[in-house]
Amino acid sequence: AYEKSNHIRTKDFKQFEEDNAYWLNDYSMYMAVKNHFESKSWTEWDDDIRLRKPEAVSRYEKKLKKEIGFWKFCQYKFDEQWKKLKAYVNELEIEIIGDIPLYVAMDSSDVWVHSDLFELDEDLREINIAGVPPDYFSETGQLWGNPIYNYDAMKKDNYLWWNQRIGEALKLLDYVRIDHFRGF
Q1: How would residue 136 be classed by pLDDT, with cut points 50, 70 and 90?
Q2: pTM score > 0.85 for this model?
């Protein structure tokens, strides 16, 4: 569908790209580079792109332009189809409730792109990881493996990343529940 469509020339696609530029470009680049490295975690990529050195980012943008476009197209089609489904069920007076997890995976575009918002060392390795101490549900506690947020860094821009993340979820859902909200 991507190869045969003229979506790039449509007003709707251009508007989608513009409205979602704050995450779409980075996510699509992340997915294209991840595919280039045979689905390995970004922490295992070549250092230049793993560390997002500007010359490496530029080089991969050129090299993987078509693949980056493919991932943008996938997100565009999902958005288009989801909006139709949501409108349909909302007309039936059905509302959609969804979860947004408290933490994100280390191997995610969020951490790769916004490494300053997480507790990572200078080599972009986790300093601390999420989990819970022993409690009623688990005698030994749990280690989830997700990187911990750098709330001091987030506070500097008034938690923009969180506001965008929740705002994006509210475009897709009628109600959002933050899973493990207690973790805040």
Answers
A1: confident
A2: yes
